[in-house]
TrEMBL record:
Signal peptide bounds: 1-25
Full protein name: Lysophospholipase L1-like esterase
GO MF assignments: hydrolase activity, acting on ester bonds
Residues covered by the SGNH hydrolase-type esterase domain: 40-237
UniProt keyword Signal, yes or no: yes
Keywords linked to the UniProt accession: Signal
Cited InterPro entries: SGNH_hydro, SGNH_hydro_sf
Length: 253
């Protein structure tokens, strides 16, 4: 091989390595700059497919509202899903003892979940539907205080464990009111819940304003239209994901 050819191949190889390094650095910088958003919710965040009775399955990631939200926001955002069926704001549910540890009490699990996902730019909370169950005997005002406790936990978690990250912004979501409750079990379990969920937005909005958090009434985006009256159709998930994405952009952009 001639000296000229060796030099040419060497130059090409060097250019390729430098270009790859630049692309890698750009990708890494983009990843580091992505806004990190934690979604904290219950079965409607988890993606529970509504059924008349019995067990169910989960909507695929691109159908669930956090997944729709991710698609709307693009690569500049990273959406972290933390949904748990039957989760409440801050009350324990003894009817499901097999969910151990923090159980279904949202206030018990929130702080370590936040710390495990830092750094975060925004924490979005949509809870309260399960709080209206008859067994808890909670008023809309008391459920609003439960949401307030969650907002306070986010603000007090601070920089996590051994780190120095900023405290994330908070977006409080009032869930849509319950729909027509399917009579098999849920009508009794959620008796009076329709009226309670209809009242939640005013309390949540006041709590968010008092705490310096953002607020959105998800009932303005979609209805609780699943056959069971508690969960969302795929269409509702899409409407919620797109609507919340717009709100998130207004907060973080």
């Amino acid at each position: 091989m001639s000296t000229t050819r060796r030099r040419l191949l060497g130059a090409i190889a060097t250019f390729a390595l430098v270009s790859a390094g630049v692309v890698h650095a750009q990708d890494q910088e983009q990843a580091e700059e992505a806004k990190r958003v934690l979604i904290y919710g219950d079965s409607n965040t988890w993606g529970y497919i509504p059924v008349e009775s019995g067990p169910t399955e989960r909507y695929p990631a691109d159908i669930r509202w956090p997944g729709v939200m991710q698609a709307e926001l693009g690569d500049d955002f990273e959406i972290i899903e933390e949904g748990l069926s039957a989760r409440t704001t801050d009350v324990a549910d003894p009817s499901l003892p097999h969910i151990s540890g923090a159980g279904l009490d949202g206030s018990e699990a929130l702080s370590p979940i936040i710390a495990s996902h830092l750094p975060l730019d925004l924490v979005v909370i949509m809870l309260g539907t399960n709080d209206v169950k008859v067994q808890f005997d909670r008023s809309p005002f008391r459920i609003g205080l439960g949401m307030g406790a969650l907002v306070d936990i986010v603000q007090q978690t601070g920089s996590g464990v051994g780190t120095d990250y900023h405290t994330p912004e908070i977006l409080v979501l009032a869930p849509p009111p319950l729909g027509d409750l399917f009579p098999e079990g849920r009508a009794e379990r959620f008796a009076g819940g329709v009226e309670k969920t209809q009242a939640l937005p005013q309390y949540y909005e006041a709590i968010a304003a008092a705490a310096g958090a953002e607020f959105l009434d998800v009932g303005t985006l979609a209805e609780t239209d699943g056959i069971d009256g508690v969960h969302f159709s795929a269409e509702a998930h899409g409407n919620i994901g797109r609507g919340v994405a717009e709100k998130v952009k207004s907060i973080l952009d």
